[in-house]
């Protein structure tokens, strides 16, 4: 209600965050994920993290914080939840005590977001970084929570790359010995979603790992899940639901999720019912209608001189140089 915006506290927090970012931005896994966001979402805010990058944090001022607070921290843009052993009367009483005098006096702010780029033919962005191993990210735009087959995507994601015994990990780790781990599937945000794969491997096996990952996407479109894949996935999703949602903070989070995404109040009941009813044909139809292996964004972080000629066999390659001091592209 009455934030202080203490300049000394800002500097203390700034130093902490910049230290964390300096360490993280030197890691190939961080660089790979950052480059993927940039290539997939362009100038849209989804290309950035809430924490920001070193240059973002370095230039923030107290006035920046004040401007944001007084524009966006307002009661008509907020939702208050109580979850626990409390009555509605007591909740209202506490709310009025804490926030009864909080009023919005200015019109709601208008926010214009840069559009998300259209999908383009498959292209590889090779971030030049020395080392014995390379990080790999593969993605394309996906679906949102309101997509009619969103519940099916939960099933597909699990047997494709969401579990240790998934197709992706079984092929790249167990059968081919290319990596210690590979994950992938659909992920969803408010305005956009994506289908992605993340793994790492020795430099000499990067082309094979990239091609094997693409082949698994094609297989997802062509080969329905077998009975074990389907039933084990559905059993896991349904069986783990209660434990994941039993705490008071989880209930509050569920309520905010439904509110913020504009979903029906019975969203989770519908989800459990739909997952139970999902069949193999629905899984293949989802992959066929939402994925296009010819329009992928592929990011590899590794030594460019070694990898570029081999990756060009798969798709066109653009080499990206990275400033070692602050991770800023040049």
Overall description:
The protein has 330 residues and is of the alpha/beta class. It has helices at 7-24, 28-41, 54-59, 62-72, 88-99, 150-162, 167-175, 206-222, 227-244, 248-261, 267-277, 280-290, 304-311; strands at 123-128, 133-141, 182-188, 193-202, 297-302, 317-320. It has a 6-stranded mixed beta sheet with strand order 3-4-2-5-1-6, with helices on both faces. The longest helix is centred in the first third of the chain and has 18 residues, at 7-24. The protein is globular, with a radius of gyration of 23 Å. Mean pLDDT is 94; it is low at 325-330.
Features:
single chain; alpha/beta; six-stranded mixed β-sheet; globular; 330 residues
Unreliable stretches:
325-330
- Overall mean confidence score, pLDDT: 94
What is the rounded Rg? 23 Å
Helix % is 40-55%
3D shape: globular
Neighbour order of strands in the largest sheet: 3-4-2-5-1-6
* Oligomer classification: single chain
Describe the sheet with the most strands.
Answer: 6 strands, mixed
The topology string of helices and strands comes to HHHHHEEHHEEHHHHHEHE
Total strand count, please? 6
In short:
The protein is of the alpha/beta class.
Secondary structure: elements and pairs:
Layout lengths: L6 H18 L3 H14 L12 H6 L2 H11 L15 H12 L23 E6 L4 E9 L8 H13 L4 H9 L6 E7 L4 E10 L3 H17 L4 H18 L3 H14 L5 H11 L2 H11 L6 E6 L1 H8 L5 E4 L10
Parallel strand pairs: 1-5, 1-6
Antiparallel strand pairs: 2-4, 2-5, 3-4
């Amino acid at each position: 209600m009455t934030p202080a915006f203490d300049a000394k506290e800002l500097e203390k927090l700034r130093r902490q965050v910049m230290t964390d970012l300096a360490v993280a931005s030197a890691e190939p896994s961080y660089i790979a994920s950052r480059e993927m966001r940039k290539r997939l979402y362009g100038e849209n805010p989804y290309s950035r993290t809430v924490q920001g990058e070193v240059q973002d944090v370095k230039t923030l001022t107290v006035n920046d914080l004040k401007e944001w607070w007084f524009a966006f921290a307002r009661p008509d843009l907020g939702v208050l939840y109580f979850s626990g052993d409390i009555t509605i009367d007591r909740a209202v009483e506490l709310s009025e005590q804490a926030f009864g005098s909080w009023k919005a006096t200015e019109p709601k702010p208008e926010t214009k977001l840069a559009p998300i780029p259209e999908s383009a033919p498959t292209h590889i962005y090779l971030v030049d970084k020395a080392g014995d191993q390379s990080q790999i990210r593969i993605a394309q735009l996906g679906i949102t929570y309101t997509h009619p087959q969103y519940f099916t995507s939960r099933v597909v994601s699990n047997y494709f790359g969401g579990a240790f015994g998934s197709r992706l990990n079984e092929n790249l780790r167990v059968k081919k010995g290319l990596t210690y781990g590979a994950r992938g599937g659909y992920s969803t945000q408010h305005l956009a979603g994506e289908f992605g794969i993340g793994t790492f491997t020795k430099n000499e096996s990067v082309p094979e790992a990239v091609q094997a990952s693409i082949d698994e996407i094609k297989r997802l479109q062509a080969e329905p899940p077998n009975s074990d894949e389907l039933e084990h996935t559905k059993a896991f999703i349904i069986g783990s639901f209660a434990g994941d949602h039993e705490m008071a903070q989880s209930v509050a989070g569920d309520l905010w999720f439904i509110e913020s995404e504009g979903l029906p109040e019975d969203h989770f009941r519908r989800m459990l019912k739909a997952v139970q009813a999902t069949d193999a044909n629905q899984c293949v139809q989802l992959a066929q209608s939402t994925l296009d292996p010819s329009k992928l964004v592929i990011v590899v972080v590794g030594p460019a001189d070694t990898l570029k000629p081999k990756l060009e066999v798969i798709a066109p390659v653009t080499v990206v140089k990275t400033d070692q001091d602050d991770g800023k592209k040049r």
